[in-house]
Design goal:
Strand content of chain B: 15-25%
Largest sheet of chain A: 5 strands, parallel
CATH superfamily of chain A: Response regulator
CATH superfamily of one domain in chain B: PAS domain
Number of helices of chain B: 10
Order of helices and strands of chain B: HHHEEEEEHHHEHHEEHEEHEE
Shape of chain B: rod-shaped
Order of helices and strands of chain A: EHEHEHEHEH
CATH class of one domain in chain B: Alpha Beta
CATH architecture of chain A: 3-Layer(aba) Sandwich
Structural class of chain A: alpha/beta
Largest sheet of chain B: 5 strands, antiparallel
CATH class of chain A: Alpha Beta
Distance between the termini of chain B: 94 Å
Oligomer: heterodimer
CATH topology of one domain in chain B: Beta-Lactamase
Helix content of chain B: 55-70%
Structural class of chain B: alpha+beta
Number of domains of chain A: 1
Strand order of the largest sheet of chain B: 2-1-5-4-3
Radius of gyration of chain A: 14 Å
Distance between the termini of chain A: 12 Å
Chain lengths: 147, 520
């Protein structure tokens, strides 16, 4: 795990390039320093998880931010693979979605989602993503430290 | 009849008698009656005559004996047998006197008389006056007195053949009368026959004709006004009754046949109709299926379109904001105003898409509702969502106690929110009031959202529920889909929604839900 001197790693699963850019902006504005690994498709991250070297603890991210609305392979499938993996199962996951439907949230209740982040059409609201990620990383780090 | 007939040997045996035509029976009855009457009358006459004649003979001979005895007194006194014989000879006039004698007291014959050729002797006298009937002879003994002194006895023998002559005469008369009366009876009975037998024979003839021809219009002829006439009348009435019933029966039969034919026609046409219905049903099913498919396609399209459209819209919104933010100092103020217009446009577009998405989602969720939804909480949530508008307009809201139902909260929140929001949006100059009340009718819960707003004219009652139909243009904000969502939600749960309104007074939006949805 990266803690202290090493920067935390975030896996962002997002197909939309502008959203990736906005996510980086939000992190910058919230002064979150981290390694951001972007997967443009659900399939990509699944492939990554299933690689043997991913099992190394140094390859594990501190947080996965997952857009639910993905082409080819849906966010739900990604979640299933993540939670089924013995190494990734405990990685905190935040979900990004353009809708705030409670029904959609109910579907994900089994996957221990740390945060539901709605992609707001309002800039200021959108940029709160940065502080949310910051909080999650801090929490994750404190859990690690306690361990 | 049955018991009396065998006792009359003249009459035929009962079986033969029963089979006999009524005419012969009548003759037989008349003859039998006459015969019996005549025989009985004859026997009684003969018997009476026999007894009367004997009595008469007795008196007559007794008187005769006394006269002869008196006349012979002198002859006996003077012992003159010749005179006595002469006296006795007067008996010649009585042809049936066979012999007569006068005895002396000592029993010797004093004088005798014998009828010609008669050889009979006088029987011995008896001591007292005596009349004795024998088999064929009658013997009279009469004492002869003179001045209280018995002189002798007169004895007379009388031939009783006379009685039998009389009997023969009477018998002959009876036989003659019998023959005569039989003839009269035969004649009479032939007259009687026409009186009694003819109507009966006629009746019998008519009966056999009716039964042979099955023609109930035949009538028996009436000959008399007596019981037979009544019988004929009754018979004719019966025939009339049968004829009427026969006619009715025949008519009923015809009607039944006609009805049967009609029923067959009806059945044939029904079968044809059923076939048509089956064909139409099949067509309907096919078109329903294709409709359901196209509906599904449409909903999926609406869902995906509205969902996916939100992404670029969000980008337009955010990047126009970023533009203003990043170049805050460098940008022209008019350009900033343009960006604001972009914001207004995208916000409106977002609202439309959100409502369209909600509308599509109601139809897309076809699973059976299993969540428990407290409508009181739903209304609270809707009121929270509308808190700003409620506060700005100073709306007074009252909510009745609402039930707990099975359903999806995501359906009922927009339902109440849209109705309450409309009540506020279409307010009048009065201070707005919204009353939510509930009741029950015929297996439905009825919920009413009543306002005191501007109201709706009746011609728009149904139009307002059509998606994107707006009565007020852009003067009052809205997407025009709110009531369509409400209607979709209510109908999805098997209810109905409608409006009752008076322009200028307010509107009542009323919807029903099946009572079966209530969770007790």
């Amino acid at each position: 795990m990266n803690h202290g001197v090493c920067m935390p790693t975030i896996f962002l699963v997002e197909d939309n390039a502008t959203d990736v850019e906005l996510f980086r902006l939000a992190l910058r504005e919230a002064c979150v320093a981290c390694d951001l690994l972007v997967f443009e498709d659900g399939g990509e991250i699944i492939d990554h998880i299933l690689q043997p070297e991913s099992a190394l603890s140094s390859a594990l991210p501190d947080l996965i931010v997952l857009d639910l609305n993905l082409p080819k392979c849906s966010g739900l499938e990604v979640l299933q693979v993540v939670r089924a993996s013995p190494f990734f199962a405990k990685v905190p996951v935040a979900v990004l979605s353009s809708s705030s439907s409670p029904r959609e949230r109910a579907k994900l209740s089994a996957f221990n989602i740390r945060e539901f982040i709605v992609k707001s059409p309002d800039l200021e609201e959108y940029l709160t993503v940065g502080s949310i990620v910051n909080t999650l990383l801090t929490e994750a780090a404190s859990v690690e430290t306690r361990k | 009849m049955r018991n009396s007939i065998p006792s009359l040997p003249l009459l035929p045996r009962s079986r033969e008698l029963r089979g006999m035509p009524i005419r012969q029976k009548l003759v037989l009855i008349v003859m039998a009656t006459t015969t019996v009457a005549l025989i009985l009358a004859g026997i009684s006459i003969l018997l009476a005559d026999f007894i009367l004649f004997r009595g008469y003979l007795k008196n007559d001979l007794s008187a005769l004996s006394r006269i002869i005895a008196d006349n012979t007194t002198a002859s006996l006194s003077f012992d003159d047998p010749a005179a006595a014989t002469e006296t006795l000879a007067t008996l010649r006039a009585r042809t049936h006197v066979i012999t007569a004698c006068v005895f002396r007291n000592d029993g010797t014959v004093f004088a005798t008389y014998s009828h010609a050729h008669a050889t009979a002797d006088c029987p011995a006298p008896s001591s007292a006056e005596d009349i004795r009937f024998g088999a064929n002879l009658l013997t009279v003994s009469h004492p002869i007195f003179f001045k209280g002194k018995r002189l002798g006895t007169f004895v007379l023998v009388y031939d009783l053949g006379e009685i039998f002559e009389r009997l023969q005469l009477y018998g002959g008369t009876v036989v003659f009368v019998f023959v005569l009366s039989t003839l009269v009876a035969v004649l009479l009975s032939s007259r009687l026959r026409s009186l009694i037998a003819t109507p009966i024979v006629e009746l019998a003839r008519v009966t056999s004709r009716v039964s042979a021809l099955r023609d109930y219009s035949i009538r028996a002829q009436k000959f008399s006004g007596d019981e037979l006439g009544t019988l004929v009348d009754a018979f004719n009435e019966m025939l009339a009754g049968i004829q009427t019933r026969d006619d009715e029966l025949r008519k009923a039969l015809l009607a039944r046949e006609a009805a049967l034919e009609d029923a067959q026609h009806a059945r044939a046409s029904l079968e044809a109709t059923l076939e048509n219905v089956a064909r139409l049903n099949a067509e309907l099913r096919t078109s329903n299926e294709s409709l359901a498919r196209s509906n599904e396609d449409l909903e999926r399209f609406a869902f995906i379109a509205s969902h996916d459209l939100q992404e670029p819209l969000r980008m337009i919104s955010i990047y126009s904001q970023l533009l203003v933010r990043h170049f805050a100092g460098a940008i022209d103020p008019q350009a900033a105003a343009f960006v604001d217009n972009i914001q207004v446009g995208t916000r409106r577009m977002r609202e439309l898409l959100a409502d369209l998405l909600a509308y599509a989602e109601i139809g897309a969720r076809s699973e059976v509702a299993s969540e428990r939804v407290d409508l009181n909480l739903v209304v609270q949530r809707a009121l929270e969502n509308l808190a700003l508008a409620i506060a700005e307009n100073g709306v007074v809201i009252s909510v009745a106690q609402l039930p707990l139902i099975r359903g999806f909260e995501s359906h009922f929140t927009p339902l109440f929110q849209n109705l309450i929001s409309n009540a506020i949006k279409y307010r009048s100059a009065r201070s707005p009031k919204v009353d939510i009340t509930t009741g029950r009718t015929n297996g439905y819960i009825q919920i009413c959202v009543a306002d005191n707003g501007i109201g709706i004219a009746p011609e728009y009652y149904s139009k307002i529920f059509v998606a994107f139909k707006r009565l007020h243009g852009n003067r009052i904000p809205g997407t025009g889909i709110g009531l369509a969502i409400c209607q979709r939600v209510v109908e999805r749960y098997g209810g109905r929604i409608w409006v009752e309104s008076q322009v200028g007074r307010g509107s009542n939006f009323i919807f029903t839900l099946p009572v079966t949805l209530i969770v007790s």
